[in-house]
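FAQ: What does the model actually see?

It sees only this:
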Amino acid sequence: MQRFAAPCAFAIAVLSAAGSFGQNIATGSASIPAAAGRPDAAARPAAPARPAAVINYETIHLEKRLTAVRATSAIVLDGALDEPAWSEAPIANGFIQNDPREGTPATYDTDVRVIYTDDALYFGVFAHDEEPAKIVVTDLKKDYARDGSDGFRIVLDTFHDGRNGYEFMINPAGAKWDSQIAGEGRDNNANWDGIWDVKTKITETGWVAEIWIPFRTLKFASDDPQVWGVNFQRKLRRLNEDSYWAPLPRIYDIERVSMAGNLEGLRGVHAGKNIRIKPYALTSGSRVTTSPTAGDVQGGVDVKYGVTSGLVWDFTVNTDFSQVEADEQQVNLTRFSLFFPEKRDFFLENQGLFAFGNDNGAGGGNAFNGRGNQPQDMRLFFTRRIGLSDSGRSLPILGGTRLSGRQGAYSIGVLNIQQREDDGVPATNFSAFRLRRDVLANSDVGAILLDKEVSGPQFNRFAGVDANFRFGSNVQLTGFAARSFSPAQAAARDNSVTARGNFQYTSRTWRTTLRYTTIGEAFNDELGFVPRVGVNDTYTQVWRSLRPKWLPKAVRELGPHWIVQQSNRIDGNALDQRQQDFHLSISLSDGAGMEPGINSNVEVIRTPFVLNSARGARILPGRYEYNEYFFYYRTNGASRLASNFRYSIGPFYGGYRRSYAFGPEFRPNEKVNATLTMQLNDISLPTISYLSTLTTARVNYNFNTKMFLNALLQYTTDTHQLSSNIRFNIIHRPLSDIFFVYNEHRDELTGLLQDRSLIAKMTYMVAF
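And it is asked to produce this:
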């Protein structure tokens, strides 16, 4: 690491001199109409600078109590907070920072009130700010990028179990983001969509938000009165400051619901009948190079029924996902399969409940990781195996059903999907059963069963048990054991078992992970994502967080860390792969950062593999030892013009590689967002040399918070293929959309069109 000391010192000195450059540029207030706030919503002076208070984080949340007041008249959602009920409701304020100055009062305080009617919960928020012209808003789209804007976030632990909940976040322009969390954020389903709305206004003394959340959007017990866990977060982006109503240590965020306060006073409330019917109608036209233009008209329906206050039963008929955004192409410089995330709505809801066997989400084809293109951790239940071929082609789904939610101390998930026969792929039925039982203060044990039945005598099954134990605030132990079953395995005696034990310790200054995984050579999980089998894998991570007083003002934290992952073959315990990372993460006060490091690699290749099929690049058997030297830098992501940059050099499979990744981002205002990512790999191998380039461009235009135009363009020099995915989306009522989607693939080398499609789709949600 000494070779990086001089460059890091120079970079820190330069950034200290220019630390404020790019701050407070991206403000959306110019295009947001200002309005007068409530008469009593006067500006408060900035909190006085004083030393951090001594906070007992284990007990302070017990003192944080907020009473919701029943409104006796109708509430108009207009962001004015002028109904009489608002003045009668108690105020939650006194927000405390957890970053950057943990334990000190927020620079500007936030007032929160809660009222409710028979049907809905309302939050009234006044975020004090003496300089509203400097409020940062960079996006309007649904599920916007939260780190780039000022914002306010709510977490609701409706079962008051200190484990699970719902998150709702807004920015001052009224953009919305929501999610479901399980296991205090261990599983976070940011693709969950609930029925709710918000109106906001920027005033001369801050900004106001009025948030409406119908009770039918939430699941909760039948108790009367209700007591829920609740916490609030305020993000002041120009200072890169996070503050909370129920204070949290810097190492946690709002998903730590066991440390939330209490929301009390909810009486006579019910989740309603909770019946949602969502039909769709679709028309499309497509053309393939070798086929004439073809058209299609079809329809289907999704139904959601609340069996109990905590369990939901879903039905889907003739399921369609044509409006889903195309996958981003990735560069694969390993011998393992690439991982692409799930994006389809039906499979995203309650995704965390079905999660099994994934402790580390790192890996994949991200161009801007400290270690690019590392193998993705396995996922033992991966819903992209349903309704998609191995190449990503959509397969028709006849229908399916899912029962999911909570009942007392149990989390329950049951799924069954019937996939139709299509173009040589036989009809297939997929089933999953997941059960988790809460134990101790904040732990759980569970089991999972998976079944894939193909027409004929073919099947693949999987059964496993897992446990997650938390001891105090810092220590977590997790593990699982599972086995796969299939006709081929029945005749073999090879090992078809996988198991894992994982230890994690987290504090303000240390993050440590120790993990051991074994995957049998005959393990075959056809409903999961398992990059390799027949190995014993160990993983160790040690991360030190440093905030010494001698750091320049522009630097917030140093994070030297070491990671080593080693895989040995089960047959003979011979080395398969060893990776070591020696990195120094440097976080800057404005949200920018940099990371120099060395990635050490040892690989034993026993069978040749294709590194790049388009170029004919193959890696021959042998033992390869090589180091990658890299530097990564990202600018302040809230600036109008931001960028990511990564450069690496070093030996590579007996040759040499130079890699460049550059990602400028342009946000002139909250309506326009454009990003361009270029990845270049200049590779020289003993048998071939080539330059591979992947270019990805995104352009988003947000007309308002209900209408969006998104374009994704991708081009790779390996295949000379240009792909386009353009989507126009109108949210004409809550969870009801109109989509126009255009897809095209073109061979730029010959200029020939490979395929083209245009899709128009409308959904209409009816909720009871």
